[in-house]
Amino acid sequence: MNMDDIFFSQNDDKPDFVPIISADEDSELRFDDKNALPILPLRNTVLFPGVIIPITVGREKSNKLIRDVYAGDRLLGTFAQKDMSIEDPSFDDLHQTGTIAQVVKILNMPDNTTSVIIQGKKRINLQHIDSYDPYLIGKVQLRPDPIIESREFDAIVSSIKDQALKIVEMNENMPQEAAFAIKNIEKPDFLVNYITSNSNLKTEDKQALLETDSVYERSLKLLEHLTQEIQMLNLKMDIESKVKTELDKQQKEYLLNQQMKTIQDELGGDPSQQEAEELKNRSKKKKWPKEIQESFKKELKKLRRINPATPEYSVQVNYLNVMLDLPWEETTKDNFDLHRAQEILDNDHYGLEKVKERIIEHLAVLKLKGDLKSPILCLYGPPGVGKTSLGKSIAEALNRKYVRMSLGGLHDESEIRGHRKTYIGAMPGRILQNMRKAKASNPVFILDEIDKLGRDVHGDPESALLEVLDPEQNSTFHDNFLELDYDLSKVLFVATANTIGNIHPALRDRMEMIEVSGYLLEEKVEIAKRHLIPQQLENHGLKPSQLKFPDEVLSHIIENYTRESGVRALNKKIAQVMRRVARKIATDDKYNISIKLTDIREYLGVQDFFKTIYQGNEHAGVVTGLAWTAAGGEILFIESSLSKGKGNFTITGNLGDVMKESAKIAVEYLRAHTEMFGLESEVFDKWNIHIHIPEGAIPKDGPSAGITMVVSLASAFTQRKVKKGLAMTGEITLRGKVLPVGGIKEKILAAKRAGLKEIILSEMNKKDLEEIKPIYLKGLKFHFVDTIADVLDIALTKQKVANPLKLN
After folding, report:
1. Three-class SS of residue 492?
2. Burial class for 780, CB neighbours closer than 10 Å (0-12, 13-18, 19+)
3. Sign of the dihedral defined by the CA atoms of residues 305, 308, 309, 313, in that order
4. Is residue 553 helix, strand or coil?
5. What is the reported pTM?
6. What is the DSSP code (8-state) at residue 33?
7. What residues are labeled active site?
8. Which tens digit of pLDDT belongs to each residue from 216-237?
9. pLDDT tens for residues 744-803?
């Protein structure tokens, strides 16, 4: 027997016995229940079959019994007393069910007491006591322990083992050797007895389990107790943890505060009080409304009452700093020199007359009136035309601060309105953050990419902007963090967008929409000379004398290497040329200071785009139309072909629904006016019509090709030539009216670049020519029409094409 495996309690009144495993727990019991058996009364414990426990022997009778038994066959009967205080129990004082036990070892302890290790063998019933002297001897009868083998019983035993292991792990007073013993017990009945003996059940509960004949029932009752025990241990641990945490936190805070107080006294002051005084001194120099000042004083008093060690203190300090940093009534003085403002705008941006005109008008009214609510401008147009950079020029022209806020991908309302200050890490919205950065309440505020706002479960930032961009509301803008009204009416908001269709109608209604269309070829050349080339020369360390771009070279790059409305791609191409030249200069290679057209292929490679040019009027049914694209104006060809058939109608070229409808209207117009062309009505049933618009990979849509399709079909059916050097654009109706279309400026420039001389437009498009500089109209002849008949009179010649079809 290894003494390290035995654990003794220091409390003799209620000892905590830890069972251990015996190597011969399954050994055969040699006992005849016809013989009398010494009876050992037990206090405070119950012995179970198979379990080994150490007990302290105190009574003289029990001591003699143990020594006599140990000298003999070592067998005795153990029965728990009903009343622990009885010193000399009788038959009625003992429970009738007990355990036959074997004395394993007698130990004489250093304190002159005797401990004995006994092992339970079988359950027995006490029938009567035969002798009381020198110790109890009685008649007993063995009780059977039936084992029920079932999957349910196996599951219960497995659960008992798991629960017991969990209790051992959770209970600090349990030795870990108990877990080792539990894991190594294989017999289910012994496992139940072992865990029952080792549990903290009351003696009467253990006795009740011992008296239960069915191991199955005994295991169920034990499992119920173990579950309750785990619940109690969990509750106990939670309570202890909470109490310990609260005590530790309070003690830690007290000690830290005492240390901080001592350090602060040594350094000569409390930092929190110094911080509050500093905030108060800053507020005295602040220009702000009286109600804001009162609110600040109130919040400062609250700060003085907050413990600096709490998280609320930093939140309050942050809030007060935001109040102090915001420019409540601090403004920059506008420069009312209109000539200077016009000069700045012209120097920074070429073209964009409408935008410049609107800024100068605002400045003029401000100069006369002295006070004016700033307009909310929205510049919309294709990418790369200078919408965003125009904001800086506006700020410089007005002598105001400049801030920019990108709205692309913004999908959280709190980005605009901020978070409530009760949250740790809360901040004001980006509107007030940018005002704080500007340090003036009247900056030029760029809201970039307003058409790319998103929305999700966090709210709709577009709706939040309704208050910001409404001149009637933004004088009392409410931020969730600040919780005070802030005046944004002095701010000049300039929003930018690529497409206004994506902007909320209510938001669009609050802004003054100004279209920034794409640049013309001539304008791009001028922009490159004034801005792009000097900028890239500086970026690449080159001097103006080392490289020159003639106009024809710039025009060649723009037409053959870029296709855009703005000048971003052009800027990249110029930079690419600069890099190649810089390399030649660095390696002392020869190059042309004034770039020639032949150098462009070497510097930029094969041209990326090919310009569409006019192809003549030799074929019937081929007419030149004008189209608008995001990259500027283009010419396109409408081709109509006739073939013998049953009057089928086909249209190809990757066309949208509106364009297809224009083609159908054109066909129906011709059907209704056959006499105008000297055709028989049956001709449409004998010939198939096919309309095609080349470059089928490019989607095309819109109504502006209406008159072009009519002329194309009329030319095909009459086999007459179309007037040479003629292009056209306009929408048609079934009544034969020609309606106006958009993009006239870009279309006219496209026609001019393609070498066309005459253009047919709707009468109602005449006004559009007034906005175009005369230099761009030079060399072009315009025909303004009201009906399709007018178009056909101008467009169709009397001359037939070579080898005409015979339709009638």
Report:
1. strand
2. middle
3. positive
4. helix
5. 0.57
6. T
7. 704, 747
8. 888 888 888 888 888 888 888 8
9. 888 888 888 778 889 999 999 998 888 777 877 888 999 999 999 999 999 998 888 888
